[in-house]
Every structure is written in C-alpha cells, then in structure tokens.
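User: Sequence in, structure out. Go.
Assistant: Echoing your sequence, followed by the structure tokens.
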Amino acid sequence: MSNEIGKNEKIAEFVAEAKVMGIAVLPPDINKSFGPFTVEIPEGQKKKAIRYGMAGVKNVGSGAIDQIVAAREKGGPFADLNDLCLRVDPHLLNKRLMESLIRVGALDAFGKNRPTIEAGLDGALGAASSTAKEKASGQISLLDMLDEAPALDAASAGRGVAEQPDWDSDTLLGYENELLGFYFSGHPLDRHLSRLRPFQTTTVSKLAELPEGTPVRLAGMIKKFEVKLSKKTGNNLPLVTFEDQTGTVEFMLFGGMYEKMEKPPAAKDLVVLTANVTFRGENASLRAQDYYLLDEAESKLLRGLTLDIDLDAWDLVKWDALHQLILDHPGPARLYFRCTRGENGSRRTTVLEPSDLFTVAPRAAFMDGLRALLGGPRYEIVASRELPRHRKPFVRRNEGG
C-alpha cells in the first residue's frame, strides 16, 4: 500500500480487498502510525492488521511526520493535544496539517470527539508557540534547570474547551473522503443500501470487467454535476460524476437526456441508471439510457415486496397496523408474505400472495413504518430486470474539441 501513497483510488481498492480478505485496516493514529502503512497486532488480539500511514493523509508532510515519530519514540505516546503541540516543532505543526489529522481520526486516542479536539487547536498551537519563543529567548532556562515545566494556562492550551457536539455522519465521512481520497469508516450510502441494492445489476467497481456495450443498471448518488461547453461545436456537455458504495464513474448525458429532464442532476441525489458500458481508453464509462430519481424508480421499476413475518410473534394489533400502513401508501408494487411458525428445529415457511388490493408505493415513509413494524429490514425487494439491449462498441467522436 505504501507504494501507492498519493494514488487514492489504488489505496481505496487495497483497503476494500483487505476487508474482503478479513484483514483489518486500522485508521491513522498519532501514537501508532508512521509515515508508510505498517503491520501491527492490535492489543488483545492475535491477528495482524494494517495501520494506515500518516503520509496517506492530505496536507501532512514528511518533515512533520518524522518529527512526530521522533518525539513519540523519545518521550512515549502523546497524552493529549497540548502534549503533542509542545513536543513537536510548532513550525511544522501548522493549523492545516493538524486539522487534517484531527478530521481523519488520527487524534481520537485522546479520548475526545473530533470537533472538541479541533475547537482546542488554536489555543494549543498558540501556547506551544509561546513556549517555544520563551525557550529560544532563554526566559525559562532557569525553570528547566530546576526541572520544572512551564505552567501553561489551561484554557489557552486547549484543555478548557467545552465538549462540542459530534459531527453528523455526512460531515465526518465528507472529511475522510476529502483528506484520504475515499470514505474510510463508512459510506454516505450505507443507510440507503436496502433501497438501492434491489436495482443494482452490477456496481461501479465491476464495470471495467464487463465487455463494451453490456447493459447494466446502477443505483447510487450523484457526486457532482456540471455542464461544460464544447469548444468545437458550442454544444452543452452535461458531465455527471456518479457514485455507489464501491466507487465513482463519469459519463455524459447524450441524446437529449439532459434537455428532457424536469430537474437537472444535483449532488447527493439518489438515482437509478440504466446504461451500456463504454470505455475511454482503459477507464470504464457509461452511455446512459434511463435516469430515475430513487423515489421515481421505486414507483416505476419495483415489481414486488416480500415481508418476513414470524406468526408466533404477531397478533391482530400488528396485522391491523400493517393493513393501515398499506392503505396509507398505495402504489404499483405487489406484496407477498413469507410467514414462518414453529421452533428452530421444526420451523415451517409459507409464502402468501394477498389480493391485488395489497399493492404499495415503497417510498421512504412506507419503508420507515415497515421497518418499525417488522422490527428491522425483514423484507426482500424485487425490482424489474428489464435492461437496454446490448450495444455494439462504437467510435466516440471527440465532442470536447
């Protein structure tokens, strides 16, 4: 991995592969990370893991890393933010570098949440800078001779900062993506996967393995959208950056798709695409055929919803609640009940298909109510598998001039 530092997509692939192989990849840690990625055995465990290297964090230079490691090896682990700032040259620990380390969790070992540590950063850096200047001018040489450390004001050193509210998941993951080049501790789409996966016939990470022209359906979100102007023709070139839980892919909206849209794509839109695989050199891309917002896809592409119901745990109150939930959310998707009864060794399962009156629109409100009633995502969504026809490879004109 260390050989790929600076190549974020490669590192992301290696991290994903390691997780599939059951190898833990540990986050950067100010008291355990070095510049490169390293192998360690976490405390209390026997299995080896990979520790993320500080050189893989944006804005963190080799000079600062060398000093951090040297100070740690000389004086032991850093106790807190103030201890770190006092023991490393303040000229190397600038605010931008420190914010980057905080935001990817490298200072989580200090026992406070990231916003609280960051709120104390100015005070800690200021106190460390003042101490360094006093040492340089000889003002505290007598104290050093008496083996006494300078008494720093707790608030100015960042120790008196009030506990700050933690960042929400989107903010935390956004910082990780910005500074590591990928989402490390999770993904913004994780909480939407139960809605997205039924539509996916493949994922972005697998596009490069497919022959050109292969029809696919992807589900994820818009990461970025911009309209460029062709220098050659003067035409609009709508460029979409699409992201799913495995990676990103860029593609143009050709064939008048953009002009026909009631609302242009926007960052964080949850969408479902049908497309054909294309290639730009070695990089996979898409020729989009259909574009749906997720709510629209659930109305047009869903064919059924199978609910898992444990009859031993259900009563008339729950059946009435389910009936009302269905009546409140009418739509095109058929409902099926997969009912089970009995002890573990003799459980019996029967699938029931209610009348045509039991059809729903499984949008967010319905799905939230269903999860609450079932005690979790105990259902299976069935989506249409109709895809565009296979397209033969075609020669792409250089529309960008």
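User: And one key feature?
Assistant: The CA atoms of residues 75 and 87 lie 9 Å apart.
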